[in-house]
Amino acid sequence: MLQFSDQLRQQVTPDAVAQCALEGLIAHLRLDRSYIVSYYLDEHIALLDYQIGNDTVPPLPQRLDLSEYPEASKAILDQTLVIEDNFERQGLSETEKRNSARLGMWAMVAATLRKGENKPLWSMVAINSTPRRWRADEIQLIEDVAERTWTAVERAKAEEALKQADRRKDEFLAMLAHELRNPMSTIRSGLQILRHVDANDERSSHTVLMMNRQTDHLVRMVDDLLDVSRISRGKIELKKERVNLVEIVSQAVDSVRSLYKEQGKRLQVELPTDPIYLEGDVTRLSQVVANLLTNGARYTGDRDQVWVRLSHQRQQAILQVRDNGIGLAADQLSAIFELFVQVDISTARSKGGLGLGLTLVKRLVELHGGQVEAQSEGVGQGSTFTVHLPTLVAAAEPIPTATPPVTNPAAVKRILVIDDIADAGFTLGMLLKLKGYEAHTRTSGQSGIEAAESLQPSAILLDIGMPGMDGYETCRFIRQQAWGQALVIIALTGYGQEEDRQRSREAGFNGYLVKPVDLEALTKMLTDLLDKDPNNVGLA
């Protein structure tokens, strides 16, 4: 029985548990059929949850009417029901005997359990197609197996429910992040417009800069939500290549210097002069460094300091980010990397955040074959976060290529924006006009196709998630037209997973930008794609 219990514990789904139990019982007792049934007495029915057997006892129907078995139903309520010979069984009505014989049930043991006041009756049933004298130890075995199987099935159901809830949580976070991107796209475009038209007004300029910072912060939080969801579901893929970690850290430091300056905090950086090469994803490694630096800024006080040091020891890159901020208690050193965990003191809570940044750091570092750890002497004593990453053998630096002269990217180029959210399309179109483009907007795939044919734009910025004819279908239709085969078409979307990018390539898009779109990234992509030979514009 211990071995049987071990086998049940190894099964991870309710179906697997039931299959294992029924197969084991049939083999041990040489049964013709065994099944698990739930009784719903208020409805006077029994439903077969699982059954296994051979053809001597045909499969039972999934639903049994208990009114056809009144005496047997009463007996099952009180105790284990034992039938050794259907026609000799005292207490069964003639109708019940005929029904049992029709189903091939000549000998049976039904071990019944009632679990909880509101739970239905549940039985594990052993059947033979010929009369059988059941021994006491066989009946006891069936009762024990029924009890253990019930426990194992309930455990598997609970675990499955937890996994399903976790999947739904991840799906919700991904959908929430996607839905937030559309209003953020409009807000960011509007702020960029104000930045251009109110540049000479000091108060307006200060306000716009402040709103831009908060919008960027919101974008980072949404990105973190999406990334956590992707990693949890195993849907994040690293684009690994040979990279110089010194350059990555330097660029990440530059990206947060304004944050430190605004908060009056000092950032001391110590980087080696020689490159440190490793195989990694530039974007994700930059995210690791930026998250650690942002974390340092968040949990240090006014005029406090953060130190960054990168070194190379024994084929490992060692990145340390140290601060003299609020510190960590001993029990927080590992918990701080868990999802949604924040330092549990009032000072930390006042700093905001979702408790995602360090979770992403840990998981991204591990995806690169490294590890990260936190150290602190205690609350109020500052913290040190140390990242270890495996490195490659150094190679010669490539010879830099000459930078081409900068030209006016907008030089009389007509752009068509297609987005079902009118505000988003309007603000993006206005931004493009401020940058010198001729911009037109449409709010559906069909109206966008008609405009593309008549306007013959240089490029189309096409939203993916539109009702009716979505961006994929719209792009495919345009590509099928003679006038649309050489058009530059760039996808604008709130979805940023690799499968989404692959799908856009297959539909015929040349470029792919995730909302809210950064104006500089957009104009650079337009310049790069429009300056190419129309016959050589590849898919993004």
TrEMBL record:
Segments forming domain Histidine kinase:
175-393
Query: What is this enzyme's class at the first EC digit?
Result: transferase
What is the organism field in this record?
Answer: Spirosoma liriopis
Ranges for domain Response regulatory: 414-530
Which residues in this protein are found as 4-aspartylphosphate? D463
EC numbers listed for it are 2.7.13.3
Q: Which UniProt keywords apply?
A: ATP-binding, Kinase, Nucleotide-binding, Phosphoprotein, Transferase
What's the source species' lineage?
Bacteria, Pseudomonadati, Bacteroidota, Cytophagia, Cytophagales
Q: Does the keyword Nucleotide-binding apply?
A: yes
The record's annotation in SMART domains points to: GAF, HATPase_c, HisKA, REC
Select a single GO molecular function from the record's annotations and give it: ATP binding
* Highest taxon, organism lineage: Bacteria
Q: What is this protein called?
A: histidine kinase
Task: Give me the reactions it catalyses.
Answer: ATP + protein L-histidine = ADP + protein N-phospho-L-histidine
